[in-house]
Amino acid sequence: MGEGSRCASCLCCPFKCLACGLFSCLCSVLVTLLLVADVLALVLYFVFRPHMIAATVDSVSLSAFALSPSTPALLQYNLTVAMAVSNPNKRVGLYYDRVEALAIYDGQRFGFAPLDPFFQGHEESTQLVPAFGGQQMLEGDAAAASFRAQQSGGAFDIEVKLNAKLRVKVWAFKVPGPRSRISCPLSLPAPGAAAAPAFKPVDCKV
After folding, report:
1. What does pTM read for this prediction?
2. Around 110, how many Cα atoms within 13 Å sit in the side-chain half-sphere?
3. Residue 106 gets which letter from DSSP?
């Protein structure tokens, strides 16, 4: 009964049957292509095994970093960071998409700087200079107390993060890569501090 009904339906409307067949065939082709692409990406990854990227902070300018006496306290800041991001791979290129830099004090983000996407060829290094400026509310009495204690000590502990979505290029193939999360812990002299030591490059955590 079911088979006869389908045959009768196709006889009555052959174009409908043809459209259904083409749609089914197209879905099968797309699924097959996706599976092949995933397998190819996995094979390329294990063949070339891209190394982790490297990053260093080469210089920093902290020209303003002050906390207002108001409630809630406002953190006024002006911070510029010069950093280098390197691709150590000999046969793998890297695309950096959705690049953003964050400035963090005492676990609270106070600065955000979007950066342009870029590409790194084999064993190339890229210079980035994220700049942060403005004011941001600093929440909590503990954070304010930590600020005053570090200000008295003449140095602030600030973390700069760099996030990006990576794509890996091998030959003519481009495959999705992991999301890069770079963390650079910095100890910076308070603005106006006397006899501040010269800044030494800092290796970031990747």
Report:
1. 0.76
2. 26
3. T
